[in-house]
Amino acid sequence: MVLKADDCIGPEVENLVSSLLDGCVLLENIRFYEEEKNKPDFAKKLASVADIYVNDAFGTAHRAHTSTEGVTKFLKPSIAGFLLQKGSRSRRGSLESEASVCCHCWWFEGLIQDQSH
Predict the structure, then answer these.
(1) 12 pLDDT tier (thresholds 50, 70, 90)
(2) Is 46 within 8 Å of 73 (Cβ atoms)?
(3) Does the structure show a pLDDT above 50 at 116?
(4) 6, 25, 42, 96: least CB-packed within 10 angstroms?
(5) From its phi and psi, is residue 71 left (phi > 0), alpha (psi between -120 and 50) or beta?
(6) pLDDT of residue 1 exceeding 70
(7) Helix H or strand E encompassing 55
């Protein structure tokens, strides 16, 4: 069973999680919160309703935000999901190819530019 919360922290989320016997709770988008910029108190609140952390968002894994880095300090295990592993393997494999050097310069530049958002 999958339940959807209209928030990502607070009593509503805590009640949904505690009432769930089997399944998961889908939280509201964390990006709406200023605290997503890696505030430890916010990370601790997010982690308090979870058992493990799985990051499956390759496109945002480079960000040191609450939802990608902060919660890992409070949740063990914190692991990479299948898509993150696939993206990592794909980048690693193309780094070994001389033909992809130009492509990877762009990719790393994109990461640096994207961190300002």
Answers:
(1) very high
(2) no
(3) no
(4) 96
(5) alpha
(6) yes
(7) strand 53-55
Burial of 71 (0-12, 13-18, 19+ CB in 10 A): buried
Q: Which two tokens stand for residue 89?
A: 């393997």
43 with 73: CB under 8 angstroms? yes
Task: Say whether 1 sits in a helix, a strand or coil.
Answer: coil
Nearest residue to 10 via CA among 56, 23, 68, 35: 35
Q: What's phi and psi for 8, nearest 5 deg? A: -120, -10
Phi/psi of residue 81, nearest 5 degrees: -80, 180
- Quickly count helices (H) and strands (E) in the chain: 4, 4
CB neighbours of residue 117 within 10 Å: 7
